[in-house]
Amino acid sequence: MPRQARLDAPGMLQHVMARGIEKTRIFSAEIDYRFFVKRLGELLDETHVDCFAWALIPNHFHLLLRTGPTPLATFMRRLMTSYAGYYNRYHERSGHLFQNRYKSFVCEEDLYFLELVRYIHLNPLRSGLVKDLEGLKRYPWCGFGVLMGRYKNSWQEIDEVLKYFGDRVGQARMGYKKFMEDGIKQESRPDLTGGGLTHDKGGLGMRLNVQEKNFEDFHDPRILGNGNFVRKILQNLQRFEEKGGPRLTLKDLTERVAAWSNLSTSDLSSGSKRTEIARARAVLSYLAVRLNRMKTTEVADFLNVSQSAISKCLLSGERAVKENKGILDEILK
């Protein structure tokens, strides 16, 4: 069966994995891990891709990413090509380093975000590289130690994970540690490595008609989520591709949000705290930063508010979008 095309658009949560060819090592020395981490951080900063979880194992790696304007395929090609070139030169070898192409799965955030963060960060423990959570916290090639404050890096998204476990950092870290402890007691989760409902609904080859009315059992091997989510993703991608994947400017977005909210563009940049203006500003911030991958500093300057104000807008904007499913269609149609 021919390989299916990858699914990608700005703002998608993706679980990405890659293994060494014939399951051989892709990390053989500490310098290898350091090169990979350095290159990963450079590309994340350059492309405005978010990374919430990561783990490097001797023969494979896992990443949990939210994509930006740069297609995931471009991001992964640059990461894997530069690393394979380095590895072959340093270890005086030739030929392919990675087994086939990387695997990636679009994931439903509400159901799987925390489960995937935990699954990825438990990989070194489940692989026998460390014995317990204390050892995992000291393992430098995994995001768990960063979340727990043992290590620091500038590119791992910490706040978006810890916010689920408490308002204060210390409280949140204790809550996340308990969440990890509970995960150790669970059996392995093959469903988190992709395919979603395909494990239960009759194989990988089913083709979907996204216009069908009964979509509860929809599934796609490239998507981890329930039938409603699968249908929504396929429909959104179809619209995105039909429009040629447009990247709206901040001015374009502001005009669309202003029209949707029956406000003027000057209202949105006025700094006013009126309820309807604050709500529209929050939705605009969410669309600009989360979906179009613009910098918070750029949006803050444009709207004449502080960067911390934009950070708060992102949370309320995300909440507004989730509570009112038709907002995106009304604004971006």
Structure annotation, total helices: 15
Distance between the termini: 35 Å
- What CATH calls the topology of the largest domain is Alpha-Beta Plaits
Looking at CATH, the homologous superfamily of the largest domain is: Transposase IS200-like
Give the overall average pLDDT.
82
Helical content class: 40-55%
CATH architecture of the largest domain: 2-Layer Sandwich
Q: What is the count of distinct domains?
A: 3
- CATH class category label of the largest domain: Alpha Beta
Count all strands and give the number: 5
Radius of gyration: 21 Å
What strand line-up does the widest sheet have?
2-3-1-4-5
Order of helices and strands: EHEEHEHHHHHHEHHHHHHH
Class based on secondary structure composition and strand pairing: alpha+beta
Give the strand content: 5-15%
- What can be said about the biggest beta sheet? 5 strands, mixed
Q: Which word captures the global form? A: globular
Uncertain parts: 195-215, 242-246
